[in-house]
Design a protein that fits this description.
This protein is an alpha+beta fold. Helix content is about 25%, strand content about 35%. It has a single domain, classed as uncharacterized conserved protein from methanopyrus kandleri fold like (2-Layer Sandwich). The radius of gyration is 13 Å and the shape is globular.
Length: about 110
Amino acid sequence: MRAAHSAALEGFKGGVLLIFFKVHGSLGKEVLAVCDKELCGKTINGPNARFVVSESFYKGEEISVKGLKAKLREFENINIVGNRAVAVALEEKLVAEENVVEIAGVKHVQIFKI
């Protein structure tokens, strides 16, 4: 499966800004929201689920894949939507493939460290 995550990131490593992140909450109870930039503000409709990628929740600062790798390690609660963004979490071994949900071809995962 590693090849699948790497394929999702092919051509996006380095300084390309294709992912949004936003921090919610206060110190000690923060949530990192991350999404692929092109999904922000859209609704994903699957046969059994509907997912709203709300601008108010996800749209914040732009970040590169390299920057996201470091940012993900700073938080214990993370909400990620988008194939590129989820591929980064998989590549960094922050989540297992079996914990990733797919809605209409778009990957989503929530990470909670206890």
